[in-house]
Every structure is written in structure tokens, then in C-alpha cells.
Fold this protein.
Amino acid sequence: ARKRKRGSESEESEEEEDADSDDEKKKSKSKAKGPDKSRSSSRSAKKDTKADSKKKPAKKGKEDAPAPAKRKEVKAEYVYEWWKEEEPLPDGKKWRFLEHNGVIFPPEYQAHGVKMRYDGRPVDLTSEQEAIATMYASMIKTDYATKKVFIENFWAAFKAALGKDHMIKDFKKCDFQPIATYIDEEREKKKTLSKEEKAKIKEAREALEAPYVHVILDSHLEKNGNFRVEPAGLFRGRGEHPKMGQVKGVIQPEAITINCAVEACPPRCPLAGHAWSSVVHKDEATWMAFYKDTINGEFKYIFMSAGSSLKGQSDREKFEKARELKKHVVKIRQQITKGLRSKTPLEVQQNVALWLIDNLAIRAGNEKDTSEEADTVGCCSLRCEHITLDRDTEGPTIFFKFLGKDSIEYKNLLKLRPDDEERALEGEEDPCVSFVRATERENFLQVCKIMTGLVKETAERKRKKPEDDVFDELNTSSLNQYLKSLMPGLTAKVFRTYNASFTLDQELFKLAGHAMEAEHTRTETTQLKFYNDANYQVAILCNHSKTVSKGFDAQMDRIDTKKAEVEEEVAEARKQLRGKSGAEKDKLKKKIEGLEARVSKMETEKQIKQKLAGVALGTSKTNYLDPRITVAWCRKFNDFPISKIFNKSLLTKFKWALDEADENWRF
């Protein structure tokens, strides 16, 4: 049975996870000080930190070579061990005490005085006008500057700032290159700074950020997350967003709401003459501040880091909910089978949608205003133009093609598995082909029959137009109500998390008793490839794609060149081997073995890079895969170094999983 493939658009955002993960990568080798507060809770937190600092470092893993070079150890940062807490919080409460220093605002814009040109002549601009022109100049080398929507939105904002009486009237006569050149020169100046000058700049930045790096949560310190307010700039958006190019305004303190404990000292507003919008005390919330985005009116929240106890508890609850689904999934699939044969249109459509969500990990999807957001869709918002019903030698097929989340194209041909094994294996290697599980054959045939009735002309109604909804009785709200009736707290995202984690668990533990287990675990490189192949199946299932880097081909050429050089060394050594004997012959044989191992390693690494070039493994690893699966697998097979799979950020984020899962743990 085979079940692979891709996803689309959802009401559930992953921005928080991604923002936390990015922030973790950036900072803190410094001894960033906690909030400057003279409180007993702060003193208690410092004791906790000091005590934890005495812990022994993690045990190092093995190396490929017989005499391994000393590897730089990857250590997780200090994390409060919330999973060992003996006194749990009351239901609905997230904390007892919360104190922090608020947010950092970007520096005020400083005019540089470099003049853009209009129709060949230099133009005087006000500071506000120059700021907007500089935003565009900084992006003229990007793909955005070639997009019609981006240019139109920028030009509308720039014209509004210029005023109707300004000499600049035509975008095509504008020359932003002088400002772009100035930006490039400033960037080059930073690169040429001495080591000492760079250290001073870094030290000053860390001193500014130090009071914000940690917060006091209950009786301990926690690492802060995205405590910086977004600067003004040109909006980019995800995918082909209709508002790209609009100017993001400056966020003032009056737009920011602060959340802290009643007993805490509220953070001081750092901008003179300004004040926070309000200070609230919501102990049921995990955010510390929020403000409204000036483009879409969406709320931007300030959360603690990905390694914080609040985020860790949220992650564990998410994965435990997915594990709970494992206990219900058989009955739910039986209900889907029954619902697909119902006489009630809504019930039929609910179960078709749920069947697609279960088998293809498609997101639920929302109705949206395409003038405000990119035209991305999910299961409930599929239109007739997004599906093609057809047949092949095995039977009926459904071809899906639409823009999913972040405007990533989803293309997938859903079909029955061929009896011919060669054709089946060929299809399994195609990321745009999914085979129906053997146990779902009859349901698939029923789904095809229903979809034909929903899309094509019937006795009861005319054929739908391409822009018409496939599911005309269904919306996200009614689907979610149906899901919750099947299991408390069940959502499309829970199904997605379950299928992603279950797939990884099944793929990884195939290694036990595998005919090629010895080969797959021969070196760290081959074992990592086995893990990445399993992770790849999940990434394809969830449609986690990325753009192939521009330097990918050159990177492959460099690997080929190095490999050819080593192969020449092998050939030369083999020639020298002729006529040799004794210790000299043994020495040459050992050299050949080492060179051949290098060739094998380079070939394996090349295969990994080629296979994963357009696939984003990190998204599923961070958001959808229960980390205990990876921890258990690493411990079961050769005590494989977890740091080879989890970077420093994920080691911190998932420290609870490192403590919880042993080699016998299974999802």
C-alpha cells in the first residue's frame, strides 16, 4: 500500500513556529542578562539557571572513520524542564507570573541625501519620500521588482507620498540606481570592517537587546522569541500576494498591547512621548504583546522562543492529540466509508473532503477575498478548474492542480496502483503521482463517482463552470463541526500531523530487520540518507517544497569534479599496487580503501542533495513530526547522533522529547 503526496491552504498558520525557529538560529552566544527587575522571582530564576549550568554535556556520537577527528559538539541551550513540574497549573491557565521588558522598536529612519533621478535629472525628496524610494531601491535586484503587481502597488504608495504637484509623474522615467548604488557601497563598507570594529558593533547590539532576551515566567527565566517590532518596508507577502509592494507603515507604541502579570512591573515604553495602547493581564494567553499589521490588519504576536516551556507544552499537546487520533482512526475511516454512501448531500461531501484530507494530507482551506489575499485553496475551497477526472488502464483517476499554502503549486495524480511492478515502482518515484492504499480501493472508486456527479452534468443540474466550487454544500466551519463529532478536538491539522508522524514512524522503523540494514547503518552518511529518505516521503505527502537554489548546478559540478579527482587517485594507487608486496602493499591497499570510502561518501551526499533539492525537510521536522520518533530511532540504531538530524534550535525546542523517548518508544 502506498500513500504519499502534497498539501494546500489552511486556516491554521505555521508562522509562529517558523518565526521562533528563525529567531533561535540568530542569537545568543552572549551572556544576555535577564530583565532588570529587583524581584524575588528574578533571584529564584537566576538560581535555577546557575544550577543547570553545572550539568554534564551531551554524549558525542560515532564517526565514519576508524580514527575520528574531534567533532564540534552541538549543545542545546538551557531549557526549563517543565515536563518535570510537580504542581500543574489549573485548566486553562498558562502561567502564574509573567514579567518582561516589552519590545524593541527599529531605529528611526535617517535620511542619506542620495538623490534618485527622474528623466535623467536629480530630484529632491523629503525624508518620508526618500525612505520609500530607498525601500524600492533595495529591492531592484530581486524578482519582486519584475512583478507587475509589486510595481503597481509601490508606485501608488510612492505617488501618494509625493503629492499631486510633484514633478515625478511617470514610473518609467524614475531611476533609483543612485540610491541602489549607495546601498551596495554601505553594504561593502560593513564587509570591510576590521574584526575589532565588527566586535564592537556586535557588543553594542547585544547590550541593547540584553534586557529583552529573557523573561520571567513563574519562578524561572525563559528565552524570549521575536521581541523586535517589524520595521517599515515594502510588503512582500507569501506567494503571489495581491498586496505585494505596498508600504508597511511604522508601528508606534500606541498600537501595541502588553500582557503581563498583575503583580509584575509593566514594561516601560522606550520611546519618549509615547505610551502603550493598553496593559492587560491574561494568564490564559501565551503572548506577551501584539499589534496590528498595517497591510492586512492581521495581529502580530510576541511569543517566547521555540524552546520555551509554553511552546514545548503546546507542541507536546499537539503530538499527543495526533497520537489520540491513532486510537480512533479505524472507526473514523469506517464512518467515512459509510458516509460516502449516504443519501444526504452534505454528509456525502463532508466524507469526500475528509477522505481527501486523510489520504492526501490536503489542508481544509478557507474562503478568501482574492483582492486581499493570494488565490490559494484547500479541500473545502476546491473549484472545478482544480480537478480533472479521467481514466487510465488501471481505472479512474483524479488529477489535482491548484495553488496551495504560500502559493506553492500542488500537482498530484491520484490513481490505482498498477499490477505491473515496474510501472508501479516508476510511479512511486514520481512526486506528482499517488497510489491509493489497497484498503481504500472501493472508497476511491466511490469518491470518483461522487466527484463526477459534483462536477459534470447530471439529470438534476447542468455542468458546473470552471470557477464553481466542487463542494457546494460544504465549508470549513461545517467540516470542522463534523470532525469534532468524530473525536473531541479533531481538526484537519490533527489529521495532517497524524499522517505525517505515522508515515515517518513506519518508514524509519522499516530499518529493523531490513535486508540491507547493515548497508544502511554502515556509516553515519548512509544512515542519515536513510533518515532523509523517510523524511522525504513526509515532505512530499505534505507538499513542503522550496525553490531550488541558483547555485545548485554549480554545487553538483563541484562534487563531480572532486569525485573525479579522488577516482584518479584510486586508479593511480591501483597501478602502483602492481608488483608491490609486504608492508608496502598493505599500506597501498589501506590507502585505496580510504579513497574508495571517500568516493562512496561523495556519491551518497550527491544523491541526497539531488533528491532533496526542491523539498523542504525542515518544515515537517519542525511542525508535523513528533520528535520522539526521531529520538527513539536514533537510540535504537547505533545510538546515531541526534545532532546530525536536529540542529541547535531543534535540540532546544524538543529537549522534552530527548528526556521522554527511549529506544522502544513508538508513535
Remarks:
- The mean pLDDT is 82.
- The first strand starts at residue 98 and ends at 99.
- Residues 10 and 365 are 4 Å apart (CA to CA).
- The chain is about 45% helix and 10% strand.
